[in-house]
Amino acid sequence: MRIEGTYTCPGTIERAFAALTNADQLARMLPGCERLIQLGPLLPDGAASFQVRAHATPAGSLVTMTATAVAARWPVHLRLELRGRTGSDPITGSGLIDLVAQEGYTLLAYVWDVDAGAIAPERQRAMRETARQYVREVCERLAGILLAEAEQAAGVTPITALRDDKTLEVTTPRGKIVKLPAASGRSPLSPVAAAWMQRAAWMTTGMLIGVSAIGLLMAFGRWLNDHEQ
Questions:
Q1: Is 93 helix (H, G, I), strand (E, B) or coil?
Q2: 152 with 133, same domain?
Q3: What is the arithmetic mean of pLDDT over 37-60?
Q4: Which of 11, 36, 40, 147 could form a disulfide with 15 if both were Cys (CB 3.0 to 4.6 A apart)?
Q5: What pLDDT is attached to residue 193?
Q6: Which contiguous run of DSSP H or E holds residue 70?
Q7: Per-residue pLDDT reduced to its tens digit, 28-40
Q8: Are 107 and 11 in contact (CB under 8 A)?
Q9: How many domains does the chain have?
Q10: What pLDDT was estimated at residue 184?
Q11: Are residues 165 and 200 in the same domain?
Q12: How far apart are CA 130 and CA 144, in angstroms?
């Protein structure tokens, strides 16, 4: 089962790499994380090993896993090996994360290959979709952590939504990566920001409707008053 994609985060690649290898920040990034323990100190290249206990979904099975960074080049590359279990099923896998500086932001390019054993194709498809959503949420949480750090360092509130309306072409240790622009009609905001924008639009529409209704009632009242006189 392969999961790959890209995600753009605010901040420098140094800050992004540091967050990806920090136990406290990793625990905040992983949805459903019950426990995350760093096994030994960070190595000079930034690599480390972590033991994780988490639920992939609120009602999902408990996953226990050890993630070991077997190769690292600070601050641009991480390669990890995964070993663990979900319920009674063993899980093994590996992951590659490349970080590329792009105009004040960090482009993450990731590939995860996971072997969940002899699982029925229907269940594998469901697991793949769950895993994609999980990785996406991890990236969004990483972006939130980096954004909070940038706000604190600068003492200002930067733009929280990253535009995704142009093609980026970068070279990593794994070769060339082309990040295509968002599809037409797709919001450039993150799902969280888009949800708040939608709520704000509905609230504004409701206020306009309410003001219009009050105006109509007042006009109708004046009309009745004129006719009674």
A1: strand
A2: yes
A3: 82
A4: 11
A5: 45
A6: strand 62-73
A7: 999 999 999 998 8
A8: no
A9: 2
A10: 42
A11: no
A12: 21
The two structure tokens encoding residue 153: 């360092």
Are 103 and 214 members of one domain? no
Q: Sort strands 77-86 and 89-102 into parallel, antiparallel or unpaired.
A: antiparallel
Residue 52 pLDDT greater than 90, yes or no: yes
Q: What is the pLDDT of residues 155-189, one digit of tens each?
A: 754 444 344 444 455 555 555 455 555 444 444 44
| DSSP string for 96-110 | EEEEEEETTEEEEEE
Q: How many CA atoms lie within 13 A of 163 on its CB side?
A: 5
- Beta strand 2-10 with 105-115 is antiparallel
How many CB atoms are located within 10 Å of the residue 129 CB?
A: 11
The residue range of the domain holding 67 is 2-179
pTM: 0.66
The tokens describing 71, both together, are 């190769």
